[in-house]
Design brief:
The structure is a single chain. This protein is α+β, with helices and mostly antiparallel strands. The protein has two domains: 65 residues; 139 residues, Beta Polymerase, domain 2 (2-Layer Sandwich). Helices cover 49% and strands 19% of the residues. The protein has a five-stranded mixed sheet. β3 and β4 form a beta hairpin. α4 runs antiparallel to α7.
């Protein structure tokens, strides 16, 4: 490997680490924004050197292990508990947890992202109203195929101290997950039972500490 490629690899890793630090310390979940800020701070203008989102996600997980181990694990478990409570309220709509809270890379200010499946967003809203939960309906753009995006309704509400963002898919949308903004593959989704199992694992980890 020549010196130029070695330097490029080192700079790419430094950019990934800086982007991860920005995301962690400022509660940012936009990989593109963090990447651009990191490049600006390190004075990098060569787009070819910018790290992939997957590299930033790996650097974020490493940053959290090295600098935030105790607080991160406890905070993540709290967010997963909140997610599970919200999922139980939305149980008729087969909720699935997605995003950083599921991946384990959520920062303290991250929102909890859910996918729910219903004939209309109003049916989800009525469920929240029946439970006395204030909410608002917004829109989310999701990539349903590699070259195809769709505008979908989403319902935002607060559970505990966390924002919940529940994107409403058609009933048959449970069959195929949209593309992940991190790696471009179908997003990983977790049912309430799977989130509960994650929490059991979190508790076991705390008891061994």
């Amino acid at each position: 490997m020549n010196k130029r490629s070695v330097r490029g690899d080192m700079l790419r890793r430094a950019l990934a680490q800086e982007a991860a630090r920005i995301m962690s310390e400022h509660g940012i979940d936009d990989y593109g924004f963090a990447k651009r800020k990191a490049a600006e701070r390190l004075g990098v203008t060569d787009q070819a050197i910018l790290p992939r989102n997957t590299e930033i996600e790996e650097a974020l997980a490493e940053h959290q292990r090295l600098f935030e181990a105790d607080t991160h694990d406890e905070g993540l478990a709290g967010m997963r508990r909140t997610a599970l409570e919200a999922m139980r309220v939305l149980e008729p709509f087969e909720p699935r947890l997605v995003g950083p809270v599921l991946a384990g890379t959520a920062t303290p200010h991250a929102e909890i992202s859910l996918h729910v499946f219903a004939d209309t967003p109003e049916s989800v809203a009525f469920r929240l109203m029946d439970n006395g939960i204030p909410h608002r309906i917004v829109e989310r753009r999701v990539k349903v195929q590699r070259d195809e995006s769709a505008q979908l309704p989403a319902i935002r509400f607060v559970a505990g101290s966390h924002e919940i963002d529940a994107t409403v898919f058609p009933r048959d949308g449970i069959r195929q997950a949209p593309m992940s903004p991190v790696d471009g593959r179908p997003m990983r989704r977790a049912s309430a039972a799977e989130v509960a199992a994650l929490l059991d694992g979190d508790a076991a980890g705390f008891s061994r500490a």
